[in-house]
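Researcher: Structure prediction, please.
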Amino acid sequence: METNYSRSPRKKRRGGFGLLLLLFVAAAIGSMGWFGYMKFIPSNEQQDPNYTLEYPIMIKGKVMKYGAQIESDLVKLPLPLVEEIFSKDKPIHYEKQSGTIVMTTTDKVLRLKTDALTGIINQKPYKLTIAAEIVKDVVYIPAAPLEELFGLRVEYDKTSKIVTLLMEGDVIQHADVSSKDGAAIRVAPSIREPYLLKVKQGESIRIWDEAKGWLLVQNNNGHIGYINKKDVNLTTIEEVPEQVSDKNFVPWKLTGSKINLTWEAVYNRRIDPAQIGEMPGVNVVSPTWFKLTDGKGTIEGKADPAYVKWAHERGYQVWALFDNGFKPDLTTAALATVESRFFMIQQLLAFAKIYNLQGINVDFENVYTKDKENLVQFMKEMTPLLHEQGLVVSIDVTPKSKSEMWSVFLDREALGKVVDYMMVMAYDEHWASSPKSGSVASLPWTERAITKIMEEDGVPASKIVLSMPLYSRLWTEKADETGAIKVSSKALGMERVKSIIAEKKLTPIFDSAAGQNYVEYKEDGALKRIWIEDDVSAKARVEIARKYDLAGVATWQRAFQTPSIWTTIDSALTKKP
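Model: Predicted structure follows.
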């Protein structure tokens, strides 16, 4: 009995193990079958394309947040989306209070108003088939001018109601469905996902992306989804051509030469050209003739035909300067509206035509940072119109600093893309009321002023003009009754500095840190100091312009000169390497 008792449990154990093994195998086979089913058997569930917007917009295979408006089968695009598309250069400007839309390119300015079928392109009428409109506080712009000005391609499918946008420069791969049974476009990259629609063999699709053997595609009706890569053959590549300007404006036509400009400061009296000596090498003069006088954009002009005639007889171009009077509130008002900006532009165009000018130099200083974008917009709206009249456009900028009113308001990167030339006013390192004596523009400081704008703001050297001082400052350092040193200064021209050196029998020494000559002397219990602007410093500054192959140099201002300075600048600017 003991033997039989001992065998019985062993039989039961073997049978239990076999059953477990059988169940395990069955489960494995079932799992493999399910895995095979999930991997190799496609879903036959169909899901209709469903868009929350009546007229959805597709860009690069993605549905956009905003939809379009359709009128007479013509497309209107939402302003927020258009601004997003062109966010880099911001060529679209909308002024809510007047309902005006301004579009700018390198050679065109188009002004439209909502609910109007006419606009103005440059200074000519522009007709529209449908008008811009406001729907639920969103501005919608007709697609036609966007296509014309910016090379945007707009496709609208009446059946699907889908709008597809293609950008200039887009390169798109096309493919044909190769499977004889056609292929499914699915909602996600898996055969187990529902399909949206099926495409026949030979049907062409656009490919926008690829992921794990699947392609994000768009069919001829604009629908997007995923198709198995093995079901298609790559075919042609579609390229959206880049927009080409009607005109390639050439601002500097003196091939092989550098700009050598000098400003002519015009105050209360007209300049008598007969009193101006020879200026060998100078090829541009910039008289300070035009000034903003009110918030409406009215410009006061002091242009002198006799001066223009004198300049042209000597082969000089005349790039008249337009400033804002350094009045910030007035500047804010004048830059704030489309109408006031256009009014300024019209006056400048008229002045240029009347007086036979070759350029306009804009000098806006002491400006609130809040006006940064409006200043750029003004230059965007002005430049194409001045170019159309053959005028060179330049703007004066200070070296970069943390000063809101004198530096921060200048968007040098944006301005550099618009203007022909950027005059970097590399002076006033130590300014009139500086608490510390020092050079008007030491050479290391000057070089940093140039390189920072090129490196940080991407302004090309070919657009930068190094603006140099022809004046020095006579600094007075004197102790007050408490023993504290008080500092004051006044600007002196080159001839006056020479006279002081001769009168005081001074011997200049070279300040290697500043890169220029220096003198000091005592007078009436005060220390007098001058970092001298002369032929030595001018030559060194021109060497900086040559080192970086800048567009040229400019000097502030002509009346501070000594006659020899022009030959010094010209020789340094034109000498062979």
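Model: Residues 1-13 have pLDDT under 50 and may be disordered.
Researcher: Thanks, that helps.
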